[in-house]
Amino acid sequence: MAIDVLTPVPKTQEERWDYLKAGADLIMLGEELSFTQYQELFVEAHNYCTWTPSSEEGDDTDRTAEQKESINPQEDLYSKLQDYFGPYYFEASRKQAEALHNEDLLKYYSSRWTSYSNGAGSLNRLFNYLYRSYIKVQARDGGRKDLYPVFQLALRSWREHFLSPLQQHGRKLTRALIQLAERHREGETIDIGLMDSVLSSLVSVGIDTENMFFLSLDAYKEHFETEFLRESEERYRKASETWRSGSDEHVQAAKARVQEENDYISAAGEYLRPETQEELRRRCEVTILGDLAGEPGKGTTQ
Q: What is the value of pTM for the model shown?
């Protein structure tokens, strides 16, 4: 059921932003807007971008005519959206996440991420005119690399104001992910969708600074892959200590262990990146079979 709170239609830029912010709040909360409400928001986003001092009616601000003339409405709107997705937006969610651990944390994180990214996608469409008339033009003609479409702006804010502060508390998200992966490795049935959701979010927030439309795996590596590979390799090394005699029995046991790990890696393909799977296989074979051949440590982490 659509909520009817977006009235009256604004006349000034200040009223227009309040109107857009109220709509953004509803969208980010996952509330249903009617087609008419969404259309009116779209129109006001366009009106904000095309505002001129001469088009203002009933301006009750203290700005002088000279101050008004110096305002770039598109730049002003982008700045307001940056502030909208600032630290305060994430404060309540972050505090709640900090109180959770292990799978409970992953479930909460995944739920918040799904809601947040869906809302950000809707806002990206709502502010499409801002992208076409300002962000894209500035990036193309002005060489600006500090401007992002609203969706990417929201993702960067999630990383800066939610993910990174959360990880300052003992890298608890990383620990929760690795613990769940270990349970899967040990043969336990886990929530594959949960792992995929959280790991996919880490990929999504890794935006290439040279090209806003390219993804970078830096967040995925920083908050999961690097530590997961290191701990997996240590696990392989400890296992290989049992089979260093080189006897036929030990050789067969080592090969069976490698196959067992390969089976896990294949099953984990539903949430691990292909690059991670490939590197896991390499480290497993080099560490276990290499140690068996008397070449401990060959080909391990650089």
A: 0.88
